[in-house]
Amino acid sequence: MKTSEIRQKYLDFFASKGHQVVSSSSLVPPGRPHPAVYQRRDEPVQGRLPRFRQASIQPRHHRTEMRPFSGKHNDLENVGYTARHHTFFEMLGNFSFGDYFKHDAIHYAREFLTDPKWLGLPKDKLMVTVYASDDEAYDIWHKEIGVPADKIVRIGDNKGAPYASDNFWQMGDTGPCGPCTEIFYDHGDHIWGGPPGSPEEDGDRFIEIWNNVFMQFNRDETGTMHPLPKPSVDTGMGLERISAVLQGVHANYEIDLFQNLIRAAARETGVAFSMDVPSLKVIADHIRACSFLIADGVMPSNDGRGYVLRRIIRRAIRHGYKLGQKGLFFYKLVQDLVNEMGDAYPELRQKQAEVEDALKQEELRFAETLDKGMALLESALEGGKKQLDGDTVFKLYDTFGFPVDLTADICRERDIVVDLDGFEHAMAEQRKRARAASSFKMAGNVEYNGKDTVFRGYENASVDAKVLALYKGHEAVNTLNARRRRHRGLG
Q: Distances in Å between the alpha carbon of 277 and those of 64, 265, 325, 475?
């Protein structure tokens, strides 16, 4: 079953159950409803049920990818090298806002996954987890649906605190929260890994494909759990994972959507198509994340979401460079992405030209320094060194626009350790110099209390600027006149 068919089947199923199908929201705002939605006290209005039952497909970024580099391990380096690490994924969701609860949510999940009319998965390939004390969910699975007891795992507080559990979801220290029940698919004993809750649970044999979150309580500042007047349901299912299951493959990158994007990446980088080339997977993954971010109004920059976008773009460009492509190529993949996902996300097709232009401009900016930066890196690693010094990491970042995790990515491929402490020290020294330079008292023995200058050289080769102050010697003046000098000729 194609990925596009699975998307549509999901929406069709929940529409048949009285859900209102709503369009996806932007990647930029939080994906979940405001806490007040789960605390509503009014009754559903006759004839307006869809207001309280909704289904959607949401494009999302992994939270680890939305944090700027912190000098610590992050998941970006794993994208392209593992079966299921991505910078972007699609979440299929159905929601009940004070309408149905555990009974219907669990039965809906089971029906959609196993009924031949819908996905038709073998029932014996599924197992489930429930929160340890959630007897209600356990009984629904075991007594009503008939799941054997040895296929149901109770998960307790396994994260060091009360209610800190893989099977208890919380928005934060306070607010709506509740137990979860998760559905796992068994890929078979030929793949290493154990069931959830076992020492081998991090293996790839048992993969979570569905998570029902039951918003049942409101947690106050004292930690007390108060039952919500209208408990709710928040469900999520990863499209890439369920597509892999239905298409009989193990890795997400083997599904049809990724196969087509990987072929496009091979075409534009000039290499033979192969599923054994991590760089092609990196490029295929990153074109989705970058295109959706730009379509949602995020542009490459040096802070916040813009810097996350810049990091991902430059990592993709570097992997193209690694494959021998030193010309522009990344922006050309947008058309292939639109072909794959434009029907499900019309805004992607509508903003295609804008996305292509933003990616092309970023490619041009990075191309100016990529060769020189790689030359500096190679020089610093001459002689078989096993560690890259922090000063070089800083220079690559500061002068050549190499995000630090991009440098770390290159070094990891060569089993070279990156001196992150040295980089942080160099960064701290740069900040000191910047603070000193921002005051003309230090540089020119002058008094200046106006706005700080802002360096734009990382983003642009030239910009329009405004003169903030003029000095002649040590004195502030309103005008300066150029002085012409006479030069004597030679002969």
A: 24, 11, 14, 62
In this structure, what token pair is assigned to residue 94?
A: 């159905």
3-class DSSP state of 5:
helix
Among the listed residues 97, 107, 119, the one whose alpha carbon sits nearest the alpha carbon of residue 7: 119
Give start and end residues of each alpha helix (H) in 92-161: 102-114, 135-139
For CA atoms 140, 145, 146, 148, give the dihedral sign.
negative
Between CA 490 and CA 486 the distance in angstroms is 13
Residue 448 has pLDDT above 90, yes or no: no
Quote the CA–CA distance of 257 and 443 in Å, as a whole number: 57
Pairing of strands 53-61, 20-21: parallel
Q: Which of 227, 261, 226, 256 is nearest to 242 (CA)?
A: 256
Q: Which two tokens stand for residue 461?
A: 């080769």
Q: Which ranges of 153-303 does DSSP label H, i.e. alpha helix? A: 239-246, 256-269, 278-295
213: tokens are 């979150």
Report the 10 Å Cβ neighbour count for 175.
16
pLDDT in tens, 262-315: 999 999 999 999 999 999 999 999 999 999 999 999 999 888 889 889 989 999
What's CA 384's distance to the chain center, in Å? 35
Please provide the distance, in angstroms rounded to a whole number, between the alpha carbons at the two ends of the chain: 87
Residue with tokens 């990382």: 458
487 in helix, strand or coil? coil
